[in-house]
Write a structure and sequence with these properties.
The complex is a heterodimer of chains A (275) and B (305).
Chain A lengths: L1 H33 L4 H6 L10 H7 L2 H34 L5 H11 L4 H14 L6 H25 L3 H9 L4 H12 L1 H17 L2 H6 L7 H9 L6 H21 L1 H9 L6
Helix pairs in contact in A: 1-13, 3-13, 4-7, 4-10, 4-12, 5-7, 7-10, 8-9, 10-14, 12-13
Chain B lengths: L20 H27 L2 E2 L9 E2 L3 H8 L1 H32 L4 H9 L2 H4 L2 H11 L6 H11 L8 H28 L4 H9 L4 H29 L3 H6 L11 H10 L4 H23 L11
Helix pairs in contact in B: 1-13, 3-8, 3-10, 8-10, 9-10, 10-13, 12-13
Classes of the chains: A mainly alpha (275), B mainly alpha (305).
């Protein structure tokens, strides 16, 4: 009796789990499957009609505007990540490995930057970038993305730097290494797990970001999310193409999150993600 | 020590031309952050004291606090504030509750649950724009998947995003769908600190389930949930992209959350002085709430071990 009860319970739990999973993933499946449908079939044949075709992908991949925006997104993502990692890891190191006045104040200042709403920042940035001729340039979008990535990288790396035992740096100093060498040759490799998390997150946040790119670009510096938003149009959106483009943009996101899950969770728990 | 000892400070660290080494490491970040965060924030405070049209910058007029006074009389702003408040107090608790129970559900060993746990996190990482787009598609009358099921459940054929109350509700549904796994992940991580026997006993022994949840499990998870909620709160306060793509703030201004209204004032009506004033208010709310909640929850983890 008891064993039957236990089996029933296990079965119930599996069923509930599957139900949660299906409900949660259904919207993603709709996006991916719609990308393989024709616009006309989506409009007229109901949500369950599915005769896969690559027509929407052909149209999307011949859309020059969208291809350029994907390239822009990759470029902005890589460069803003690179700068944030170099500058952010140095600052994080400085904040953990030295004792000085105001260091906690500075650390909390960096943390509070992460709370600044993008919309509050984008208005002055728009005026500043217009003045500096940085509007609608990739440099401008990169700068905007660095503004949220640097504080994130600094905070994420603090515990990683703090965890390195003092012996390592003492040994390096005795060997006559300069401060910079201690950082680049000793610490940088030692915190590489943290650097992986930070880079992945910085890239994802830049790749997902929409508001800055929307306001600060118009033609030349459009990133992929902005281009997709442009495809949306006012009436009768071309869902086949939109979802095909969406699926392309989701590929790096899913590859990264599913392969680096362990790191990702660490990154999320220590700071959250948001585009 | 050797001959360089004169250029070393008290703790025996080399100085760079008289500058303490920690500043060399922190300076690049400080300089960049000053240029693209601190200065813009100060500049937006400056802008908020002007009657400033985007295309007539030279005609800007100093008005001191007039923009802030106008805000209090601006019905649309107060409406947005109210919508934003509702969004936060409805979406976040739902996300927490779902996240909590799914964490209890999935806190089991086995390959199956490991796979489920990682798949369930996917929506968190989806581009906000794609999420908004997806829900817009799902809610299309006639051919949207969610509309289809709602119709089967007897709600009739409706253009869900064209009716103010439903559109607002669906914006919240979209956020709950996307972000409860975020809460789930924090709570699941926090559960590892709760002894397994307590959790298992709670699941098998039906009668004492609720008692254990409230008396034992929840108190243990409080700091975890507080941190997760803070992060969610900060994001929920500035939500923009999903809603912009999903409804554009409409129909009318039924889903015109704060960021959307500020965007509209700044980049559709070009009142950048007035919009800056609203931006400053939102900034103060965001910073104020986070300082209030952070208290002792987020610790500076920078002390050497």
């Amino acid at each position: 009796m008891r064993r039957i009860k236990k089996k029933l319970l296990t079965l119930t739990i599996v069923v509930i789990t599957l139900a949660v999973l299906i409900v949660e993933l259904m919207p993603i499946l709709v996006v991916i499957s719609s990308g393989f449908k024709r616009d006309i079939d989506i409009w007229s044949k109901g949500p369950f009609y599915f005769k896969p075709t690559l027509e929407s992908y052909k149209q999307v991949l011949s859309n020059e505007d969208l291809l350029i925006s994907l390239k822009n997104s990759l470029f902005v993502g890589f460069i803003s990540t690179l700068i944030s990692i170099v500058v952010g890891s140095m600052a994080s190191y400085g904040l953990t490995r030295y004792v000085f006045k105001f260091k906690e104040t500075i650390a909390y200042m960096f943390l509070s930057f992460r709370m600044i709403p993008q919309i509050s920042l984008v208005i002055p940035l728009y005026v500043m970038f217009s003045f500096l001729k940085l509007r609608d340039t990739l440099t401008g979008v990169i700068l905007a993305h660095i503004s949220f990535n640097i504080p994130y990288v600094i905070w994420l790396l603090l515990p990683f730097f703090a965890a390195v035992p003092c012996d390592y740096e003492e040994a390096a100093r005795i060997d006559g290494a300069t401060e910079m060498q201690v950082f680049w040759k000793v610490f940088f490799p030692l915190v590489s797990p943290g650097l992986v998390v930070a880079s992945v997150f910085a890239f994802l946040m830049s790749w997902n970001e929409f508001l800055y790119a929307l306001i600060l670009s118009s033609v030349n510096a459009k990133t992929a999310p902005v281009a997709v938003n442009g495809l949306l149009g006012q009436y009768a959106p071309k869902w086949g193409q939109l979802t095909a483009a969406g699926t392309i943009m989701l590929i790096p996101v899913f590859v990264i999150t599913l392969t680096l899950q362990k790191y990702i969770i660490k990154g999320l728990v220590s700071g959250g993600i948001k585009g | 020590m050797n001959s360089t000892s004169s250029s070393r400070n008290k703790r025996g660290r080399t100085k760079f031309g008289g500058v303490s080494p920690h500043w060399i490491f922190i300076a690049p970040a400080l300089i960049i952050v000053f240029a693209i965060l601190i200065f813009p924030v100060l500049y937006s405070i400056y802008m908020s004291t002007y009657d400033w049209h985007l295309f007539y910058s030279s005609d800007k007029k100093f008005v001191a606090f007039k923009n802030f006074v106008e805000l209090l009389k601006d019905k649309e702003f107060l409406h947005s504030l109210w919508l934003q408040f509702g969004f936060v107090v409805i979406a976040l608790p739902i996300e927490t509750v779902i996240g909590f129970f799914v964490a209890l559900l999935l806190n089991r060993d086995g390959k199956f649950y490991t796979v489920v746990r990682s798949l369930i996190l996917l929506p968190v990482f989806i581009l906000p724009v794609i999420s908004g787009l997806t829900w817009r598609l799902l809610l299309q009358p006639e051919y949207g998947m969610v509309s289809f099921f709602l119709e089967k459940m007897g709600f009739g054929v409706r253009a869900w995003l064209a009716e103010p109350d439903f559109a607002y509700g669906m914006v919240i549904v979209q956020d709950v769908w996307r972000m409860w796994p975020f809460m789930f992940m924090f709570i699941y991580a926090g559960l590892s600190g709760v002894p397994r026997e307590i959790l298992e006993a709670a699941q098998i022994d039906g009668a004492s389930f609720w008692k254990r949840v409230f008396k034992i499990i929840l108190p243990q998870l409080r700091p975890t949930i507080a941190t997760a909620l803070l992060l969610r709160l900060v994001d929920a306060l500035r939500i923009f992209s999903e809603v912009y793509v999903m409804t554009g703030g409409g129909p009318g201004n039924a889903t015109m959350l704060l960021s959307l209204y500020i965007n509209k004032q700044a980049f559709e009506f070009f009142n950048i002085g007035y919009a800056s004033a609203m931006g400053v208010v939102l900034l103060i709310i965001a910073l104020g709430l986070s300082f209030f909640i952070v208290g002792g929850n987020i610790k500076f983890e920078g002390e050497r071990g």
